[in-house]
Amino acid sequence: xxxxxxxxxxxxxxxxxxxxxxxxxxxxxxxxxxxxxxxxxxxxxxxxxxxxxxxxxxxxxxxxxxxxxxxxxxxxxxxxxxxxxxxxxxxxxxxxxxxxxxxxxxxxxxxxxxxxxxxxxxxxxxxxxxxxxxxxxxxxxxxxxxxxxxxxxxxxxxxxxxxxxxxxxxxxxxxxxxxxxxxxxxxxxxxxxxxxxxxxxxxxxxxxxxxxxxxxxxxxxxxxxxxxxxxxxxxxxxxxxxxxxxxxxxxxxxxxxxxxxx
Length: 262
Description:
Blueprint (H helix, E strand, L loop, with lengths): L2 H8 L5 E5 L4 H12 L3 E6 L2 H13 L4 E5 L5 H15 L4 E4 L14 H28 L3 E6 L12 H21 L4 E8 L5 H9 L6 H7 L10 H12 L10 E4 L6
Parallel strand pairs: 1-2, 1-4, 2-3, 4-5, 5-6, 6-7
């Protein structure tokens, strides 16, 4: 076994990764996993308390992380945040467009303001951060953009009109960006999780009038692999797309859902 080759392929040593929504849930779990593989992470979020706590947790692991308050709905915030990362580290190797909002309502019950919030954070935010990062990746000889999708990127879901719209949009935006920026050695892929045990899943449960308890989690685990997803399950997929294991993978979607949409 060529251990040296394996370590080289999976290593993220000295890679700089930007993560939106990185102060909690999948974003935080992914930040920690990336650091374990050697990356330095820049966490973008609007929750300053969670952001500070995330950096402290990562530093306690022996890793390096910074937190930047960034409303990814605003181009000015995105550009300022990315400029700061470049000033500090001089490059960005990967961007994980993770931030999202889940509104569990149908088209009649959903307020237009909530539609705007959901799509601005989860779809426009992916576009804006990519817009700001791509010129630096191009100058650096390439990079990896990983968008966050869902099983509902491929199919509809009950009382989730804005969520399905934005996740479907993320999937096809990923394909378009792959085509546009492949010539600059920028790979663009999308990770599509199923139900993962996070504060967002709890929020969805409560929006639908449920109780986030053992019974609810068992219902969510009703899939071929018979368990609820963890943040680490999703993080491992992001590591794959950020590493040299995927140097000829672009425009791809990786469903991480325990077989839920099989």
